[in-house]
Amino acid sequence: MILDWVISIMEALGAVGVGVAVFLENVFPPIPSEMVLPLAGFTTTQGDLNVWAALMWSVIGSVSGAFLLYGLGRSIGAARLRQVADWMWLVDATDVDKSLSWFEKYGKYSVFFGRLVPGVRSLISIPAGVDKMNPVLFGVLTAVGSTIWNAVLIWAGVWLGAEWETVSMWFERYSTIIYVGIALIVAYVLFVLVRRRIKT
After folding, report:
1. Whole-number Cα distances in Å, 186 to 12, 31, 51, 152, 156
2. pLDDT tens-digit profile of 17-51?
3. What is the pTM of this model?
4. How does 38-74 read in b/e, with b if 16+ C-beta sit within 10 Å?
5. Rounded CA separation 22/180 (Å)
6. How far apart are CA 23 and CA 31, in angstroms?
7. Nearest Cα to 35, choosing from 1, 70, 85?
8. Cβ 113 vs Cβ 106: under 8 Å
9. Alpha helices of 87-134 — where are they, by DSSP H?
10. What is the chain's mean pLDDT, rounded?
């Protein structure tokens, strides 16, 4: 039922609808990006949606949703958020604690890497807000991490075509390989950027 609703949003709004769906996915965990973004990728193969527009709006949706949670963390603090989480559907205080410990362990860069980890991806914005992390740096790290994650899922939908619904199954079965692959790509990009900076 939720997926049908997401499909109707994308059909009505096109690429903007992808952004709206991803924003909601960040704020409401019952809407998984592993379903929304591959569907967007498949839709681009039908000529109804431009793949680059879908990616751009998906990142806008991710960053907007992240800033909403960042603002909550910054304004009401960890203790109050635990209370609020216990009243929410499919989210509880332990999820907030998990994101807090992740941030405490890995620091500000956990915002980037957290965007690549299911279960942490959205909630990592909360401890960043609680810690009053620089909002510009938070936005940049969120945007970069979201671009990588969203691009992988959208192009998975493009590649799988009508079998886009199997993406979540593939992620579950081969999650370790997928995350290692993403980590290697990120490491290579960082290596190239640092190398260029040293040369200049």
Report:
1. 35, 26, 21, 12, 18
2. 889 988 988 777 656 667 788 878 888 888 778 88
3. 0.75
4. bbbbbbbbeeebebebbbbbbbbbbbbbbbebbebbb
5. 24
6. 10
7. 1
8. yes
9. 93-106, 110-114, 125-130
10. 77
